[in-house]
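Our consortium's second objective concerns turning raw sequence data into structural hypotheses that experimental partners can test. To show how far this objective has progressed, the report includes one record in full. It was chosen at random from the queue rather than selected for favorable results. The single chain below, 300 residues long, was entered without modification.
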Amino acid sequence: MIYTVTFNPAIDYVVRVEDLRTGEINRLTSEEIYCGGKGINVSLVLGQLGIPSRALGFVAGFTGRALEEGLSQSGVETDFVHLEQGLTRINVKIRSGQETDLNGQGPEIDERALAQLYERLDKMRDGDMLVLAGSIPGSLPSDIYENILAYLSQKEIRTVVDAAGGLLVNVLKYRPFLVKPNHHELGEIFGKELSSMDEIVDYAKKLREMGAVNVLISMAQDGAVLVDEYGEVRRCGVCRGTLEDSVGAGDSMVAGFIAGLAQGDYGYALKLGTAAGGATAFSKGLAKRDTVYELLKQLL
């Protein structure tokens, strides 16, 4: 079973307006509502690709109930911790030429609720996969990713970490199966501005030396590069299409990579991940199965 953890899930309210003017009433041209959060995005796209998963995390209030109901309707199994206080956040995504996001803070997570999450992690068995993705709410310890990997270190569980900075670096000693920074985040880890493919590959290899089994670097319009567990460097170009919305594209790449690895080798996983990321970037909302496999034809 694949488990995804989203510490601060959200209802994403995406609004589109032709010419946003601050200080005035703006009339929307369209609006959509989605279940959001990086781990949740991974679960949703995995479902589109025929891979079941179980979404973990924390929800609260009427917005938390709406999130759970939406995921259930999308076929995603959930096992959330229900918080007694607060509300699952609503993120407002404004699309008017540029992408502007107003992200809520989310509810407080206390020690009792965190202990309930660990009880859910206890259900994991050897051979399962855990995806940790996204930022950490201020009410949780900053080393929570590291603590979870330490807690699970006695089990044969493949872990995937999609995070930036210290959140990522601090888990490398636990040999995560896959890490996926983008090229900007990779440079920030080492205090470098990476301007060439050779530099990106060199620093991806350093993450492997520090403990990561596989390192997947997303590079927006320049595609992606994978340094796999055998040290082989694999590159994949970007799919052709018209950018609609970049939210969730990186999470979709993670889901596509996981699904691709279940169906083939690392080369295929990289291509399916790239296609899934492109399918989200070229769509309103997350990638759908048919779009992913149509884009995959460009890469095979």
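The partners drew two points from this record. The first strand starts at residue 2 and ends at 6. DSSP finds ten helices and 14 strands in the chain. Both points have been shared with the crystallography group to help prioritize constructs.
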